[in-house]
Amino acid sequence: MAIVEVDKAERVYCAQPGCHHTVYKAIHVVREDDRFLVLGSTCFLKRFGSLTALGKAQHWGGNGKVLTSEERALLAENTQALLARFEAEEARLREEAEQKLQRLREELARRSLPTQAPAAAPFQISGMRGMSLRGSFPWSWMMPGSSVAAFKLRDGSGWLRVQHKDRRQFIVPWPSFEGWEESLPPVVGRANLEVGGYEVGHVVDAIAYLRAHATGEKITGVWSDVTGLLGVVSS
Ligand SMILES: [Zn+2]
């Protein structure tokens, strides 16, 4: 049923017939038919042939729970009551652990929401709905009605965060230039030559990098705002 331990001063008698030893460490509490036996590990071994003969202890995982004086008194006088108390205490601990886990899950869900939201939902600008701005942006793959974030970097290059119709985020050079695919570090994303921009892994990190190197920034749904910051392409 359990393996327990008591203070040496409160050691108990081993119940194995003929053994008159007292025990305090690794006290094996065994149920045999309708009675309980309190055995030292040596006598347990003698009686059952092996320390693992009865399988894992039902209470406390066989970890040698140290009993309080009160529990020690119960062990000697009313083993059944002690085991009932173990049962109740273990149930309470299980409940506590479950509640703790639940709180942790909720906390994690709360924390991960703000960082996931921008990547999962399109950037909408209030009042933009119904306006057709798609034609004014130069990317056919762009999510209709979404806004962009434009960054003018200190090296003179211009970059935009643009959301794809499939909801992926890209950092796109504007105006595009030779070698753009090798000019930003991996924290921004991976160059996607087909789209013509960096496919963003973590939008927050990518934006943080651009912001740290920018002299100007604009979040907008209006193309002329972008050209105002980054310039127009002369062709
Ligand atoms: Zn014994």
Bound small molecules, deduplicated: zinc ion
Number of spatially distinct domains: 2
How many DSSP E strands?
A: 12
**Sheet having the most strands:** 6 strands, antiparallel
Main sheet: which strands, in order across?
A: 10-11-9-8-7-12
Classify the beta-strand content into a percent band: 15-25%
Helix content: 25-40%
Low-confidence stretches: 115-135
CA-CA gap between termini: 86 Å
Note the run of SSEs as H and E.
Answer: EEEEEHEHHEEEEEHEH
**Mean pLDDT over all positions:** 85
| Rounded radius of gyration (Å) | 35 Å
Structure write-up:
By secondary structure, this protein is of the alpha+beta class. The chain has two domains: 2-93, no CATH class; 134-230, no CATH class. The chain is 33% helix and 22% strand. The protein contains five helices and twelve strands. The chain has helices at 41-48, 69-77, 79-120, 203-212, 223-230, and strands spanning 2-5, 12-13, 22-23, 27-32, 35-39, 65-66, 148-153, 158-163, 169-173, 190-192, 197-199, 214-220. The strands form three sheets. It has a six-stranded antiparallel beta sheet with strand order 10-11-9-8-7-12, sandwiched between helices. The protein has a four-stranded mixed beta sheet with strand order 5-4-1-6. A two-stranded antiparallel ribbon has the order 2-3. Bound molecules: zinc ion. The site of zinc ion (ZN) has 8 residues, from helix 1.
